[in-house]
Design brief:
Strand content of chain A: under 5%
Helix content of chain B: 55-70%
Largest sheet of chain A: none
Radius of gyration of chain A: 24 Å
Largest interface: A-B, 50 and 65 residues
Distance between the termini of chain A: 55 Å
Number of strands of chain B: 0
Shape of chain B: globular
Largest sheet of chain B: none
Order of helices and strands of chain B: HHHHHHHHHHHHHHHHH
Radius of gyration of chain B: 24 Å
Structural class of chain A: mainly alpha
Distance between the termini of chain B: 19 Å
Structural class of chain B: mainly alpha
Oligomer: heterodimer
Number of strands of chain A: 0
């Protein structure tokens, strides 16, 4: 709270302000809160689609509709484990960069990216071996749209990680003080992971 | 003006006002929030005029019972595009993007928004989306109403439908990005010493609006993604013949589009709070009540969407719940209206067009609000659903509310944006033309709706002809009313009398810098000496309790008989110290 000092005139205030270097100070770095609000909006798209799925399920007499083959659980289960595991792996990268360890950062990000790629490959394998297509029935359509939309987010997370790996080649681009890119990729990856857990329970288990 | 207020006003003024930027910067990817605000305002106003032309064509068609001006299909496209333009390209971006961008950083004493590039990106999504929507007239414009309910939207022209979806998705994305920016800016970039309860009420309103935009808009995006699958690929999400359910689309759509009406009105509520306090020269009545009722409207606004679907086969228990929540919304809204009336009460009202529009806003918005409570009740809604009663209701809140408020804001902040005053005589002409035209156009629609005239049809029963003719005459008056405004703005921008930095003698920070403000707004972190609405109150810090040296000028002294006072209160005049603890914003 700036209080007004009665001994000063407005001219004094102006002189002080011009003398202060604060005038050209750095723009505050608020990217992390911005990202979190953005992810809240992203989460709402998924919530909308989940609610649509639940509503379709509620109004359709038998779910999944007649003639839809049961979903395999083994491959998606392994996939889920890989994705959840990658969330713990990427956290190590954050720990590493806190200690200014860029090598460690690159190692853990590499492993996470690999796990993400395995997940995507598993998803694609499942897509190609499923008995139903996008237009088969309402269950198939929602299944493909939900998993596909999530897959797009996994793709984007991979791109983020590769971008961080690319940038980390520059010495001191990331250090213990300043590593927004690492944090952002990590937060985003956790978000994608949490969405998948909900999706897996909703689509495969229930 | 108190000493504190005077020091506050002068201390924050840049010592060397910068040169005015040239006009070319408005066509660049500028990251200055003031440039972006003006870009938004001008762009959206152009779309407002386009939407107005479409509306006038709709009313021309409805002047007679037969379909004689345009074909039925074209008529469908006219009202569809009219609504889409007015909602997504005028009121939402003008209220949030336009005035929000221009004012919020100035009001909280920040140099700019939290994410200037994101801000520019959010703006530059709007012109392409608007042009895209307009281009749909070349390939068969969408004609399923702005709600685009399937299955109707699945069987009309695919090209127009997809253009509509892409355009609205782009505009929705723009709205989300802008909202993220506002939330972070308001939460993190206030000047030191400005707590939440010292913010101007417009910032509170923008905060609540942005929460709604971030939470609700993505759900519409989800709905439109599913709808585009249906249109393009032939899935059956919303197509009952393939096992889908059109009601799910309605739920997803209204989960955004009901909050959207609060996105359109909340910023205007904030503007009205500013206008009325300044032009009535009184502290705002119930600062916290107005601020927190914005948040209450935001929370409640998310759980009322099914009242648009009372006739869509909604189960009775669900109707009951949504009827009650909808009626509860009237409570925080009423709190605001009564607070504004209490602020006006006994105030020293000035004779400005801004205040005139603010009072016109209150009158018309209350009429729209009351018909809103009427339609909230299920039995009544079943009777008037899809009739002109609903059309009357929505235009009373969106035009009589939002647009009148936006006009008032134009008159109020134009001096800050351009450094020149608007012409008052033309402003009055603009107000009365708008007010009379508006009521002539929309008041009869209540009766039409109750007598059973359907909305969204080009031909109607001849027994409605007289009232429709009156509506059409009103619509033409309303169309004419923009002419004095455009003339006024153009002339004032070029030739208006110089406004000075603070023509309304306001206390909020946007008036504490030059008009127009320099690129970084203030010379340093602004000095706050008074609350935003402490008109005629004692200064905040008790050290400054000495009369100003210029006491011979009553306008500059804060004494009980100052010209700033509404009425010299004999009780206070006897004990001036009684006024010491009145500020809401300590």
């Amino acid at each position: 709270m700036t209080t007004i000092d009665p001994a000063k005139t407005s001219r004094d205030y102006q002189q002080e302000a011009i003398a202060e270097p604060a005038h050209h100070q750095e723009h505050p770095d608020l990217r992390i809160p911005g990202l979190i609000v953005f992810l809240a909006a992203e989460g709402m798209i998924f919530l909308g689609l989940f609610m649509a799925y639940i509503a379709f399920r509620a109004v359709t007499p038998d779910w999944p509709p007649e003639g839809t083959p049961k979903l395999e659980l083994l491959l998606p289960g392994i996939n889920t484990a890989v994705l959840i595991g990658s969330s713990f792996v990427i956290h190590n990268a954050d720990q590493a960069i806190q200690k200014n360890d860029v090598k460690g950062l690159r190692l853990w990000f590499g492993i996470t990216a690999l796990m993400g790629a395995v997940f995507l490959a598993g998803q694609l394998y499942e897509y190609f071996h499923l008995e139903f297509g996008l237009r088969t029935n309402i269950f198939a359509s929602t299944f493909y749209v939900l998993t596909g939309f999530h897959g797009l987010h996994v793709c984007f997370g991979l791109i983020l990680m590769l971008a961080v790996l690319w940038r980390s080649r520059v010495p001191n681009h990331y250090n213990s003080e300043k590593h927004f890119g690492v944090q952002a990729a990590e937060i985003y990856w956790h978000f994608v992971d949490v969405i998948w857990i909900i999706l897996f329970i909703l689509l495969y288990l229930l | 003006m108190t000493q504190a207020a005077q020091i506050q006003e002068q201390a924050n003024r840049p010592a060397h006002p910068e040169k005015k930027g040239d006009w070319k910067q408005y066509f660049t990817f500028s990251t200055d929030h003031k440039v972006i605000g003006i870009q938004y305002l001008v762009t959206t106003f152009v779309f407002y005029l386009i939407g107005g032309v479409l509306a006038t064509m709709v009313r021309t068609e409805l002047a007679t019972p037969e379909s004689d001006f345009v074909s039925r299909e074209v008529y469908n496209s006219l009202f569809t595009v009219h609504a889409t333009v007015m909602i997504f390209l005028w009121i939402v971006p003008a209220g949030t993007g336009g005035f929000g961008n221009y004012l919020v950083p100035l009001m909280i004493g920040a140099r700019d928004m939290a994410f200037p590039k994101l801000n520019a990106l959010a703006f530059w999504m709007i012109p392409p989306a608007g042009i895209l929507l307009m281009s749909s007239f070349l390939v068969g414009a969408p004609g399923a109403g702005w709600t685009n309910y399937p299955p109707l939207s699945l069987i009309s022209g695919k090209a127009g439908e997809m253009i509509w979806i892409l355009s609205v998705l782009t505009l929705g994305t723009s709205s989300i990005l802008a909202a993220i920016n506002f939330l972070v800016t308001i939460a993190k970039m206030r000047t030191p010493g400005m707590g939440w309860n010292q913010m101007p009420l417009f910032c509170w309103a923008m905060f609540a609006t942005s929460i709604l935009a971030v939470i609700a808009t993505p759900v519409l995006a989800g709905a439109l993604i599913l709808l585009s699958f249906d249109v393009l690929i032939g899935t059956a999400f919303f197509n009952p013949t393939g096992g889908g359910d059109p009601i799910v689309y309605q739920h997803l759509f209204w989960f955004y589009s009901h909050p959207a009406v609060y996105i359109m009105i909340l910023p205007v509520f904030g503007m009205i709070s500013e206008l009325i306090s300044v032009h009535a020269r009184k502290p705002i009545f119930g600062y916290k009540a107005i601020a927190y009722s914005s948040l209450a409207i935001c929370g409640l606004g998310l759980i009322v969407w099914v009242h648009h679907m009372f006739t869509s086969g909604t189960p009775p228990w669900m109707r009951m719940f949504f009827m009650i929540t909808t009626m509860i919304i009237a409570v925080p809204t009423g709190i605001k209206v009564f607070s504004w009336l209490a602020t006006l009460w006994g105030g020293k009202l000035d004779d400005s067009s801004a205040l005139l529009f603010a009072m016109g806003f209150i009158a018309l918005f209350v009429i729209g609000g009351i018909s809103g409570v009427m339609t909230a009740s299920v039995p009544f809604d079943i009777h008037v659903h899809d009739t002109y009663f609903v059309v009357a209701h929505l235009h009373y809140v969106l035009f009589g509310g939002s647009v009148f408020g936006l006009y008032g804001a134009f008159y109020h902040w134009f001096p800050k944006i351009t450094g020149r005053m608007m012409n008052e005589a033309w402003g009055k002409a603009h107000f009365w033309l708008s007010f009379v035209g508006f009521n002539l156009a929309f008041m009869p629609m209540h009766k039409l709706g109750l007598e059973g005239m359907n909305r969204r049809i080009a031909e109607y029963d001849p027994k409605f002809a007289t009232l429709n003719l009156i509506c059409t005459i009103g619509a033409f008056l309303l169309a004419m009313s923009t002419i004095p405004f455009i003339v006024n703005v153009t002339w004032s921008w070029l030739r208006g009398e110089p406004a000075g930095d603070n023509p309304w003698r306001a206390l909020t920070l946007e008036w504490m810098t030059t008009s127009p403000p320099p690129p970084e707004n203030f010379i340093a972190d602004p000095v706050l000496a008074t609350g935003p609405y402490d008109y005629g109150l004692a200064p905040r810090s008790t050290e400054v309790d000495v009369p100003f040296s210029d006491a011979s000028n009553p306008a500059l002294s804060a004494g009980p008989s100052s010209t700033l006072r509404a009425k010299p209160d004999p009780v206070v005049a006897a004990n001036p110290s009684d006024r010491g603890t009145e500020s809401n914003n300590r």
